[in-house]
């Protein structure tokens, strides 16, 4: 007979995690710089906390409200406010970060083949309907594609970003 599955308590889970050195983890940054739906930002914020990533958001007026509504943890999380998405991506690249776009592209790596991030990596997510703008594609070092079997051509930003973040964090 199999032993019963014992569910760990929230205290046991928290005590087994690595402690944060400071508010900004810095290694992984999710960058949904052209979002259409605020609900996706809240979901990504939760995933960022789960994998130890930061979230970079554009200067749209509704972003702060969407993040506050979506932060179900009710704790401070690492959010970077980006003035100009293109200038910020160029600065990140110049500073040595790898800039990875989640996009359907000829040269894209399949999600299953994406290695964990070994240096600061910015994961760029585009607009839900139009993707990453053409002027931002030149700032990418590489792209990752999430294969799909169904009739849709893409996942929503929160789901796609969450899958890629877990892979980059080496957690799947």
Question: Please, could you describe this protein's structure?
Answer:
Residues 37-166 form the tRNA/rRNA methyltransferase SpoU type domain. Keywords: Methyltransferase, Transferase. One of its GO terms (molecular function) is methyltransferase activity. It holds the Pfam family SpoU_methylase. The chain has 6 helices and 7 strands. The two termini are 30 Å apart. Helix 3 links the parallel strand 2 (54-57) and strand 3 (79-81). The chain has 172 residues and is α/β, with parallel strands linked by helices.
Q: Structurally, how many domains make up the residues?
A: 1
Percent of residues in β-strands? 15-25%
CA radius of gyration is 17 Å
| CATH architecture name | 3-Layer(aba) Sandwich
**Widest β-sheet, arrangement of strands:** 3-2-1-6-4-7-5
Extended strand count:
7
Which CATH class is shown?
Alpha Beta
* Low-confidence sequence ranges: none
CATH topology, what is it called? Alpha/beta knot
Individual helix count = 6
Q: What is the N-to-C succession of helices and strands?
A: HEHEHEHEEEHEH
InterPro entries: Alpha/beta_knot_MTases, rRNA_Methyltransferase, SpoU_MeTrfase, tRNA_m1G_MTases_N
Domain tRNA/rRNA methyltransferase SpoU type: 37-166
Keywords: Methyltransferase, Transferase
Pfam families: SpoU_methylase
Produce a short descriptive summary.
The chain is of the alpha/beta class and 172 residues long.
